[in-house]
Amino acid sequence: MAKRKTLRFDYLTIFPEVIHPYVQASMLGRAARKRLLSFHAHNLRRWTHDRHKTVDDKPFGGGPGMLMKPQPFLEALAWLKLRNIKTGRRRTGAARARVIATAANGKPFTHADAARLATRYTRIVFLCGRYEGMDQRILDRLADEVFSIGPYVLTGGELPALVMTDAIARHVPGVLGKEASLAEESWSDGEGEYPQYTRPETWLGIKVPKILLSGHHKDIEAWKKAHRMH
């Protein structure tokens, strides 16, 4: 059986220092050391051409705040050999890469999306916005998909990118260690999580449900199914 290629994550951001601590720790860090995953944060200001390294500008038509400009993202993706520098279109040979933008009005990111991205692609590139958002042409021309992690606004796209990274990485064989953990966890079958307990059996006067101590696996599975929380 052929060895699976390392799943590579790239982040185009003006704060690469936000990315590194999370992906170097715990499960993701171990997976990187085993070469199951690799992480590469790129400072978007590298692809600017003025002395202030400007990545934003005022929106046409007025409005509060500043928008991320499209050209630095295009040049970064061209440097990564994923987009044509003149047209912005996908370059030949980039079919196994997926460029994802994070935006509050994007499609809600789901467990199914995480599984699909982990199994279908070998490279995930996140375009991390800041300020009041991105020029719409970034979303229309450079991104393959635009996702949101919830109906709220954050100060930047780095946290959504890391949330999606974590969810995607869990679907890469070997990352969790025990594949049964992925098969049994919440949302793997489209349903939510059930309550779980560990020692001690009684804590602050609250007892673990007797059925979980019974050893009757069929009854325990039925209880778990009945108590899933959506």
What's the layout of helices and strands?
Layout (H helix, E strand, L loop, with lengths): L6 E7 L2 H8 L2 H8 L3 E7 L12 E2 L9 E2 L1 H10 L17 E12 L2 H10 L2 E5 L8 H7 L2 E4 L9 H12 L9 H6 L17 E2 L2 E2 L9 H10 L4
Parallel strand pairs: 1-2, 1-6, 5-6, 5-7
Antiparallel strand pairs: 3-4, 8-9
Helix pairs in contact: 4-6
Give structural notes:
The chain has 230 residues and is α/β, with parallel strands linked by helices. The chain has 2 domains: 7-179, Alpha/beta knot (3-Layer(aba) Sandwich); 192-226, Orthogonal Bundle (Trp Operon Repressor, Chain A), CATH 1.10.1270. The chain is 31% helix and 19% strand. The chain is built from 8 helices and 9 strands. The chain has a 5-stranded parallel sheet. Helix 4 (111-120) links the parallel strand 5 and strand 6 (123-127). The longest helix has 12 residues, at 158-169. The two termini are 39 Å apart.
Biggest sheet layout: 5 strands, parallel
Rg calculated over all Cα atoms: 21 Å
Taking pLDDT < 50 over at least 5 consecutive residues as the criterion, the unreliable ranges are none
Number of strands: 9
Task: Provide the β-strand percentage band.
Answer: 15-25%
Summarize the amount of helix as a percent range: 25-40%
Within CATH, the superfamily of the largest domain carries the name SPOUT methyltransferase, trefoil knot domain
> What is the CATH top level name of the largest domain?
Alpha Beta
CATH topology of the largest domain: Alpha/beta knot
The N- and C-terminal alpha carbons lie at a distance of: 39 Å
Q: Give the strand order, joined by hyphens, for the main sheet.
A: 2-1-6-5-7
Overall morphology? elongated
Structural class: alpha/beta
Order of helices and strands: EHHEEEHEHEHEHHEEH
Number of helices: 8
